[in-house]
Write a structure and sequence with these properties.
Distance between the termini: 21 Å
Largest sheet: 4 strands, antiparallel
Radius of gyration: 17 Å
Strand order of the largest sheet: 1-6-2-3
Order of helices and strands: EHEEHHEHEHE
Length: about 190
């Protein structure tokens, strides 16, 4: 793994969930504001979140190409999708628009992957796309296979979110959580 000479990896923080803001404040207190960052291992590189999110989105794009019947079901059923709250639809294609305590990139990735596949939603209702008992559970990031499973880092990660590992191995969420790194500035 190629590290930046100004930064050192201190842990693999894994899932942060609704505790994200609280955890980030604790890192500010421990390491100092601006002296820590979340990055992603993409062997042999360390990449920023925006590139990791692009790879996350690519996984959905590739999934829909591999399973066009799932894409067809989604666009014919849903008028749009949301991840953590109905207000997520306001983000449209913008990963930076985060109005809830936990990140919602899944819905944005789905919208962008649908668009990149030359389609758009034609259905009659908003679809909740995360959680075992939701209509969109079959396209949850914890279920959808990751297109480059050999790039997912194996090993232990912290469970800051307190839910344990709720996703399946070699899925989109597995990549997003296992490849995440907490780095601190060298002093």
């Amino acid at each position: 793994m190629v590290e930046n000479i100004d930064w050192i990896t201190v842990e693999r923080p894994g899932y942060l969930g609704k505790k994200r803001d609280e955890i980030e404040k604790s890192w500010d207190k421990k390491y100092g504001d601006g002296n820590w960052r979340l990055m992603y291992e993409w062997n042999p590189l360390i990449i920023p979140r925006r590139e990791a999110i692009q790879i996350y989105e690519d996984a959905y794009y590739e999934y829909f190409k591999r399973y066009p019947q799932v894409l067809e079901w989604l666009v014919k059923t849903a008028s749009d999708v949301y991840d953590t709250a109905i207000t997520n639809v306001e983000a449209k294609f913008d990963y930076e628009k985060q109005e809830t305590p936990n990140n919602h990139i899944h819905d944005v990735a789905l919208r962008r992957a649908v668009l990149r596949n030359g389609r758009w939603f034609e259905g009659d209702h908003l679809m909740h796309v995360r959680g075992e008992k939701t209509e969109g559970a079959r396209i949850s990031p914890g279920v959808v296979s990751f297109h480059l499973p050999h790039m997912i880092v194996k090993g232990e990660i912290k469970d800051y979110g307190g839910k344990g590992i709720w996703w399946h191995n070699n899925t989109v969420e597995d990549f997003y959580q296992r490849n995440k790194l907490l780095q601190v500035r060298k002093t």
